[in-house]
Write a structure and sequence with these properties.
It is a multi-pass membrane protein. It contains 14 helices and 10 strands. Strands 3-10-5-8 form a 4-stranded antiparallel beta sheet. It is α+β, with helices and mostly antiparallel strands and about 350 residues long. The longest helix has 24 residues. Among the domains are: about 70 residues; about 150 residues, Sandwich (Jelly Rolls).
C-alpha cells in the first residue's frame, strides 16, 4: 500500500460511517429516523398490552402470580403470531417461544400449588374446628396427619391410660369421635369430647421430665376413635415446621386451660366447651400435670378430693370447698400462672 492510499484512508471524514449493506456513506449529523415505518399490526400492540397489564397487577391480589404468568404467556403467543404472519422474523419467534415455555411451566406449577386439597372425611371436622381458624394450610395439615400418625379405636369401658402404670412418653392423641372420662383414684374429674387432646397435660410435662407415668385414668365412656401421633416423630416434625410448632403450643395450652375449667365445673358439656374454644386462650403454656402430681403426692389428697367432690347445695359452701381444694393441692399457683 502506497502513501497516497494510506492518506486517503486515514483522512476519511469522521462524520461518515460505513453502511455494510449498500456500501454507501451516511452522514451522522442527519436524522437516522427521518422516515418512520408504519405502525405495526394490532396483534403486536395487544401483546404489549398483555405485558403491561401483567406487570401492574398489585401483589395484594390473591392470585396475582397466576394472573401475571398467564398474561405473560398470552403476550408471548401473540408475539409469535405477529412474528410469523406479519413480520417474518425468525429470531423474534424463537425467543418468544422460549419465554412462552418458561411462563407456561411456571403457570402450571402455580395452578398445581393452588389446587384444592381434599381432607379425609374423618379429619374434616378436626381441621375446621381446630386448625382452619388458625390459618393452617390444608397441605400442611395433610402432612401432619398423613405421615407418622394412625387412627385407633376404643370400645366402651376400655382404658386409654391407667394411673401409675401407663407411660406418658409415647404418644399424643386427639379424640375424633365418642367421649372419654378422666378419673383419679376412682373419682371423676372431667370429660373429654371430640376435637380435644386426650393427654395434653402429660405431653406438656414430658417436655421437661421424661419417664413419668399417668397420674389419672382415662377410659372410653363411649365407642371412641382418636388420632394418635408418635411423640418422638411429632417432635422432630414440629421442629422442622416453626409455624406449626407455634400452633401446637397454642392449641395444647388452650386445651389444658379448658381442662382446668372442667375441673372447676365437672358438668361442662361438649356444647359449652365449643363456646370456650371460640374465646381467646388465657395462656399458651399451662401444666395441669403439676396439679395432678401434687394431688398424687399429697398425703391427705383422698380426703381433700372427696371433700371437693361432695360440694354443697349453696354457692357459698361450694366456693369454700373449692378454695380448700386449691389450698390443699397447690392450685393457687397454677391459677396465678393462668390468669396473670
Amino acid at each position: 500500500m502506497n502513501t497516497t492510499e494510506i492518506n486517503s484512508f486515514t483522512m476519511t471524514p469522521l462524520g461518515f460511517i460505513p453502511d455494510f449493506k449498500n456500501a454507501t456513506l451516511v452522514p451522522v449529523n442527519e436524522t437516522a429516523c427521518e422516515n418512520w415505518s408504519e405502525v405495526h399490526h394490532l396483534v403486536f400492540h395487544v401483546a404489549n398490552i398483555c405485558f403491561a397489564v401483567g406487570l401492574v397487577i398489585p401483589t395484594t391480589l390473591n392470585f396475582h402470580m397466576i394472573f401475571l404468568r398467564g398474561l405473560l404467556a398470552t403476550g408471548c403467543v401473540l408475539f409469535i403470531i405477529w412474528a410469523m404472519l406479519y413480520r417474518c422474523a425468525l429470531d423474534i419467534m424463537i425467543w418468544n417461544s422460549v419465554f412462552l415455555v418458561l411462563n407456561f411451566l411456571h403457570f402450571v406449577y402455580l395452578l398445581y400449588k393452588r389446587r384444592p386439597i381434599k381432607i379425609e372425611k374423618e379429619f374434616s371436622s378436626l381441621y375446621k374446628r381446630m386448625f382452619e381458624p388458625l390459618h393452617v394450610p390444608p397441605e400442611l395439615f395433610k402432612r401432619l396427619t398423613g405421615q407418622f400418625c394412625n387412627i385407633q379405636t376404643l370400645k366402651t369401658g376400655q382404658a386409654y391410660a391407667a394411673e401409675d402404670k401407663t407411660s406418658v412418653d409415647d404418644r399424643l392423641s386427639i379424640l375424633l369421635k365418642g367421649k372419654m372420662k378422666v378419673s383419679y383414684r376412682g373419682h371423676f374429674l372431667h370429660n373429654i369430647y371430640p376435637c380435644a387432646f386426650i393427654d395434653s397435660p402429660e405431653f406438656r410435662s414430658t417436655q421437661m421430665n421424661r419417664g413419668e407415668k399417668f397420674q389419672v385414668t382415662i377410659t372410653a365412656d363411649d365407642n371412641c376413635k382418636f388420632l394418635c401421633w408418635s411423640r418422638e416423630r411429632l417432635t422432630y416434625f414440629l421442629e422442622s415446621e416453626p409455624f406449626l410448632y407455634e400452633i401446637f403450643r397454642y392449641l395444647i395450652g388452650k386445651d389444658i386451660t379448658n381442662k382446668l375449667y372442667s375441673l372447676n365445673d365437672p358438668t361442662l358439656n361438649d356444647k359449652t366447651s365449643k363456646k370456650m374454644e371460640q374465646q381467646p386462650s388465657l395462656c399458651s403454656q399451662l401444666s395441669v400435670m403439676q396439679m395432678r402430681n401434687s394431688m398424687a403426692s399429697s398425703s391427705d389428697s383422698e380426703d381433700g378430693l372427696q371433700q371437693f367432690l361432695r360440694g354443697s347445695s349453696t354457692a357459698s359452701s361450694l366456693r369454700n370447698n373449692q378454695q380448700d381444694f386449691y389450698n390443699t393441692y397447690g392450685v393457687g399457683r397454677l391459677q396465678h400462672d393462668v390468669f396473670c
